[in-house]
Design goal:
The protein has 5 helices and 10 strands; from the N terminus they run αββββαβαβαβββαβ. It has 208 residues and is an alpha+beta fold. It has an 8-stranded mixed β-sheet with strand order 1-9-8-4-5-6-2-3.
Length: 208
């Protein structure tokens, strides 16, 4: 009888511990940010050699964080649209900040030097940051390139308002029936709630 009680207590302890560990992992961002979470700031090197943080943008109302890279055909297909988003929304307080999350040893095309070349070729109007050591993309929970996170600056911090893809057709913007990023930023600028908060990111897997 005593043995059964001891086993029951042990089982309860194990179950509680497992729940606690799972809760801690979730709170620490084991799966990345979710809608409503506060995104922590970062300090990453830009292609001009200077370091960029969200705190540098004192007049910003929020950010369009874009995890992207050089080699992925999905990222390449969206480059012009990302440039257009920055040109449209930067003046309205929502600049694009692009981050390359890939390990250049796995894909040399995504090296820092090649980032500089690609940005110059395409005329990027936004920072293109190198996630050295791949420390930032896991915090966000980014899985693909491109993967978009829209943050709204508030008194509590930078709140995640949208996660997912740019629009509903990566092949051709003209065929996209839904423009998720534009709709989300427009809603925030107008003081409305974002209707579609989460979509599935379409792109290449991030290379660790």
């Amino acid at each position: 009888m005593k043995t059964l009680k001891i086993l029951a207590v042990l089982a309860l302890v194990i179950a509680v511990s497992a729940f606690a560990v799972d809760k801690v992992l979730t709170k620490k961002g084991g799966d990345g940010y979710d809608i409503g979470d506060i995104a922590t700031d970062f300090r990453l090197k830009n292609i001009d050699g200077k370091y960029v943080s969200l705190s540098h943008y004192r007049d910003a109302k929020g950010f369009i964080i874009t995890f992207t890279c050089n080699h992925c055909p999905y990222s390449v297909a969206y480059e012009d649209r990302i440039i257009a988003l920055d040109k449209k929304y930067k003046a309205l307080g929502y600049p694009v900040i692009a981050i390359n999350p890939n390990n250049p040893r796995a894909y040399p095309e995504d090296s820092f030097e090649n980032m500089k070349i690609r940005a110059k070729e395409k005329g990027f109007t936004f920072p293109y940051l190198y996630d050295d050591g791949q420390k930032i993309y896991p915090q966000y929970g980014a899985k693909k390139t491109p993967h978009i996170y829209i943050l709204q600056k508030t008194d509590k911090g930078n709140v995640v308002r949208y996660i997912g893809t740019i629009d509903s057709n990566y092949k051709d913007e003209k065929l996209a029936s839904k423009k998720y990023v534009e709709d989300a930023v427009d809603a925030l600028l107008e003081g409305r709630e974002v209707k579609i908060k989460h979509t599935k990111a379409i792109g290449c897997s991030i290379k660790a």
